[in-house]
Specification:
Blueprint (H helix, E strand, L loop, with lengths): L2 H15 L7 E4 L25 H10 L3 E6 L4 H10 L6 E6 L7 H11 L6 E5 L2 H8 L4 E4 L6 H23 L1
Amino acid sequence: MEEEDKKVKNEALQIIRLHQNLPSLIVFDLDHTLWPLYCDCCNEDDVPYLYPEARGILYAVKDSGIDVAIASRSPTSDIAKTFLDKLGIQSMTVAQEIFSSWTHKTEHFQRIQRSTGVPFTSMLFFDDEDRNIEAVSKMGVTSILVGNGVNLGALRQGLAEFSQKSGSSSRGKQN
């Protein structure tokens, strides 16, 4: 792991440790969330790269015992999976739902929920498309819109919102 990735990982671990209520699963979109490209504009021979803070965040999430999944509407799942493999993050995920769809990722999340058993309310999701955020939020998933890829600010926001939602729902159950 590069020095900058280690620095980001350590900062991400500090952010994660600030929260008592953590998601069981963090789901990432691929195109313009983990990497700054569209798979359907690439071929398998291209050399992919992640946004600057993405790798450190992925390692921090895994080291914290939080599972990672992928939800992508890419019509070129073969290229997406090749890129995940080339980047060395294919084996970090417990679920990968990569297929073209008009359902704004609701079908992706239903499949992830079925395969992992993790309730929607125990998931945190990062994506660059507002329509996906809206649709998946309605399922009970804490969803964060990212502008220029996943970064420490988005992680901080996502964990704070997840913690707030899960804290208020557990207080509501006690009354």
